[in-house]
């Protein structure tokens, strides 16, 4: 009977030990799973933050300057209504666009209207589109032109700290058969301002010339 007792006591003691071991093993497994889940969650959160950051960085546009455009006049523009047109000009630079007022019944409109756009870091061309304003139908196309403003921006940056008061020529866009210039587009420094006067033949249209004055203001870091 003592051996049975010892056997019983042995069995009695071993049962809780087994349960204790299983309980410890389970809790260790749950802890490991919890740790793995937490690590995975942290990793996903970190990846999400990185993706969000890179997306927001990709959406940001750095600007390197301002371009002030004086739309001076149009000459001998195309007829889109009965004997005349109601022209206006749209300027676009990258994702930005602005437009002039409409001048009624005029093929030689004088806008003398100043508009301003920001220059993105990857400098795109300045696009000019001329349209005839219609009331009940879509506006009619009257031609377009394109200007590379990089030389003007470079000249403005180079002259940023200039103390010269007298006017001087900094460069020019030479009129040739390869471009649409009516005359050379001279870049000049006058009264601390870097400007360029340009007269362009409108493209993809039967006729018309557009005259504009550009001024570039670089943004210093």
From TrEMBL:
Residues 1-14 have a biased composition (Low complexity). SUPFAM superfamilies: C2 domain (Calcium/lipid-binding domain, CaLB). Keywords: Calcium, GTPase activation, Metal-binding, Zinc, Zinc-finger. GO terms for molecular function: GTPase activator activity; phospholipid binding; zinc ion binding. PROSITE patterns: C2. The keyword Zinc-finger applies. This is C2 domain-containing protein. SMART domains: C2.
């Amino acid at each position: 009977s003592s051996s049975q007792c010892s056997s019983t006591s042995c069995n009695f003691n071993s049962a809780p030990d087994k349960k204790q071991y299983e309980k410890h093993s389970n809790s260790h497994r749950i802890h490991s799973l919890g740790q793995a889940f937490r690590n995975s969650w942290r990793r996903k959160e970190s990846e999400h933050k990185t993706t969000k950051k890179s997306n927001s960085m990709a959406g940001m546009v750095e600007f390197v300057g301002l371009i002030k455009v004086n739309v001076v006049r149009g000459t001998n523009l195309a007829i889109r209504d009965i004997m005349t047109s109601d022209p206006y000009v749209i300027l676009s630079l990258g994702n930005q666009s602005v437009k002039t007022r409409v001048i009624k019944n005029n093929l030689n409109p004088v806008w003398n209207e100043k508009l301003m756009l920001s220059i993105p870091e990857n400098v795109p061309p300045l696009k000019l589109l001329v349209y005839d304003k219609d009331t009940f139908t879509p506006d009619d196309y009257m031609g377009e032109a394109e200007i590379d403003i990089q030389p003007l921006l470079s000249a403005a940056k180079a002259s940023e700290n200039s103390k010269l008061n007298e006017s001087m020529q900094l460069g020019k866009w030479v009129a040739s058969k390869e471009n649409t210039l009516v005359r050379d587009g001279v870049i000049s420094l006058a009264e601390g301002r870097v400007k360029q006067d340009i007269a362009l033949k409108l493209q993809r249209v039967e006729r018309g010339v557009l005259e504009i004055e550009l001024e570039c203001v670089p943004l210093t870091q």
